Amino acid sequence: MGQTVRRRKGGIGIALVTGVLVVGASACGGGGSDKASGDDAKASVKPSASASPKPTKPAGPPMLLDTITPQTGTTVGVAMPISVIFTNPVAAKARATVEKHMKVSASQPVAGAWHWMGDRRADWRPKTYWPSGTTVKIDADMKGVSNGNGRYGVHGYTHTFKIGDDVRADVSVTNHTMKVTRNGQTVRTLSINAGSAEYPTWNGTMAVIDKQEKVHMTSCSVGISCDKGSPNYYDLTLPWDVHLTQSGTYVHYSTGDPNPGSGSARGSHGCVHLSMSDAKWFYGQVKQGDPVTITGSPRAKAPADNGYADFNLGWDQWLAGSASGEQTTATL
């Protein structure tokens, strides 16, 4: 019987990979490298020695999954990948077999593929966005499967979730606007401010990670400034926060920029600022997995593993990180 990997309180599986945010605090992170921090490909966990596996009782310690996202029973957006995080590194030689034991089914079959973000995280995304209304199921039957490093799976895991309305937000940094559409129809166009020249916002498409009514944000937690005398220092709790990257990008309201738009042209530290009323409205419109696409910033696209920015990779780039290649989902 399949098991469900539960969400850890206060975070999602992706936070375990990148490790960017300080517990209890987060912030708009505009500076730093254009790569996600804490690359799990650099993990130095030494595999345990094991004997050759037997058909019935493989030797070696267990291979376990830390998280599967989305959670079972949830409704998510059209850009949401399936993201599987392993507790221990999976060797390159074992990934094709592991991928084949993580079966993706859908009520509307789509083409897609797995892609490895380092050696502990594998994401499955469709070639293009999911169709709204699709029911998706992942069966990760890991029993007896080797991770190539002396560990063998002992459990099966099953998650089923649904793709909701096609809600998208398109942010133009240069025009100071955010256009919100639902199922192809424009709902509203909002005034925004994005990052400053010193702390530009990431370009590209980032699926919503999660959202919170209030988030404690500090400049120190993302390496901007820990000096209380610095003009870039801040320690604030701000409302209506839609989380885009694990390095600290949010769409939200900021007390330092209460009336964003081309008239104020006040830059953020990398976040997208909305007025209080617009931030509350937007918060109520979006869900995990809805794509927010930002254009016109001088910064590069967010790395695919910096949250759920999977669609920032072209399809050829995506397949280059897959061990088993493109596949069509089984039909539910």
Short synopsis of the structure:
This protein has 332 residues and is mostly beta strands. It has helices at 13-18, 95-100, 276-285, 315-320, and strands at 62-63, 65-69, 75-76, 82-86, 102-106, 111-117, 121-126, 135-141, 152-153, 156-163, 167-172, 177-182, 185-191, 204-207, 210-218, 235-243, 250-253, 272-274, 291-295, 327-328, 330-331. Strands 2-4-7-6-20 form a five-stranded antiparallel sheet. A five-stranded mixed sheet has the order 3-10-8-5-21.
Could you please describe the fold and organization of this structure?
By secondary structure, this protein is mostly beta strands. The protein is 8% helix and 32% strand. The strands form 5 sheets. The chain has a 5-stranded antiparallel β-sheet. The chain has a 5-stranded mixed β-sheet with strand order 3-10-8-5-21. Strands 13-12-11-19-14 form a 5-stranded mixed β-sheet, covered by helices on one side. The protein has 4 helices and 21 strands. The protein has helices spanning 13-18, 95-100, 276-285, 315-320; strands spanning 62-63, 65-69, 75-76, 82-86, 102-106, 111-117, 121-126, 135-141, 152-153, 156-163, 167-172, 177-182, 185-191, 204-207, 210-218, 235-243, 250-253, 272-274, 291-295, 327-328, 330-331.
